[in-house]
Amino acid sequence: MQQDILINWSPQETRVAMVEHGAVQELHVERTLERGLVGNVYLGKVARVLPGMQSAFIDIGLERAAFLHVADVWHPPAEGETISAARTAQALIPIERQVFEGQALMVQVIKDPMGTKGARLSTQISIAGRMLVFLPQDDHVGVSQKIPLAQREDLRQRVQTLAGSEGGGFILRTNAEDAQDTELGDDIAYLRKAWARIKSASLKLPPTSLLHQDLNLLQRVLRDLVGESTQTIRVDSREQFEALQAFGAEFMPQAVKKLQHYKGERPIFDLYAIDEEIAKALGRRVDLKSGGYLIIDQTEALTTVDVNTGGFVGARNFDDTIFKTNLEAAQALARQLRLRNLGGIIVADFIDMARADHRDAVLAEFKKQLARDRVKTMAGGFSQLGLVEMTRKRTRESLAHMLCEPCPVCEGKGIVKTARSVVYDIFREILREARQFNPQEFRIVAAPKVIELFLDEESQHLAGLSEFIGKPVSLQSETAMGQEQYDIVLL
């Protein structure tokens, strides 16, 4: 499929949209003050060792200490030992015998801080390039599983020859499949220079210092997103266009030909109504062209997706209506996972299908659409309850977590008490306080909708309460209050 990449840049935020045939397939957002840490290398200082959790907290100069598990403490395999065997043996050595408090340790962030959790670290350093990932502490040459089996051994031999005897291991990335020796050689030289800078900095800088920062979003666009199917990369900033040209000329010369400076009067994201797509990607409901719709709910533990026929009545029979809705839902769901960057466990509740061939076709279409995802996904079949369970690797915060925060009124529940429920809560609270205190008057301060109910439908009950407690009750409307919020003032 032919792709266009649109880049909207401002000093505070960079937004990237990948468009195929006029439809947005991927969105990437990076804010200057909230830039991710994955890939950054630090000279950390061990703050605390926790034998009970087989982990350690490492100070890398952030607000929260980062987390290092014993499984992420790396030692290269012994001669003749496989990497998996070395990892298993290493994990059996207690953490307290591998690190100690106050120790300076070179570490790399492998998972960004999320919520209340600090960053996750590894002591195995890896530096990503265009074609290769460099493993300076290893001597293994691996190949991406997405590269056809027939080409893997040839690529491995070529990289071993080009790398020479300088040490270090490499992993060939997917886009190295058709790479020339000159391209691989340039990547190897760049990665060795980067590692040399990191080692030099680690000897000069104090603990908690940043030794190496991963590429910013604009640079990662050239490194990771541009492929043969990319037609254009349009940037709406002259300054960033020139910076990308310079970066691309050094590391990705093929991508430079596709770079364009967008000079149009309309904002670049208006070309494909991308801001509207972002707004839709933050909502629960996703409408399908047929009239059906998806309901997507993101929770702490998992994401649930419910498929509904909605207004789609079909042309022939009920089974065909359900089948067509589920097929369209499978395509839309795979796209929404990319757009929203949803990760972790995802459970999809497709509409029940009586025919096995319909279920097989829907599942095949869903897996076909998931195969286009750059992030690792794994989907099972239909369960006994008719659910499809899948996982998608969580690499960064979802779009909703990045752009939104919990509602201060409902505190993330998604619902609030009705105005009548709040009125009855207030009645009970006044009765409770009337037994403990003896004020001259009670004043209710609440949201306008609640006060309106007191003045209208509940006025008789309010008068009865005032008579029962023997005190006047006055009302005060406060527009700044949420529907569930109220105060009872004793005067």
Radius of gyration: 29 Å
Total helices: the number is 13
Structural class determined from secondary elements: alpha+beta
Give the N-terminus to C-terminus distance in angstroms.
71 Å
Strand content: 25-35%
Question: What's the overall geometry?
Answer: globular
Number of strands: 24
Low-confidence stretches: none
Rounded mean pLDDT score: 88
Sketch the major β-sheet.
6 strands, antiparallel
Residue share in helices? 25-40%
Q: What's a concise summary of this model?
A:
By secondary structure, the chain is α+β, with helices and mostly antiparallel strands. The protein has helices at residues 83-91, 149-163, 181-204, 217-225, 238-251, 253-256, 274-281, 318-340, 356-370, 399-403, 419-436, 448-455, 459-469; strands spanning 3-10, 13-20, 23-31, 41-50, 55-59, 66-69, 104-111, 120-122, 127-128, 132-135, 141-143, 169-172, 209-212, 230-235, 259-261, 285-287, 293-298, 302-308, 344-349, 377-382, 387-392, 442-446, 473-477, 486-490. Among the domains are: 3-35 and 216-274, 2-Layer Sandwich (Nucleotidyltransferase, domain 5); 283-399, no CATH class; 419-490, Hypothetical Protein Ychn, Chain: A (3-Layer(aba) Sandwich).
Give a quick set of tags describing it.
globular, 491 residues, six-stranded antiparallel beta sheet, Hypothetical Protein Ychn, Chain: A, alpha+beta, Nucleotidyltransferase, domain 5, 24 strands, six-stranded mixed beta sheet, 26% strand, single chain
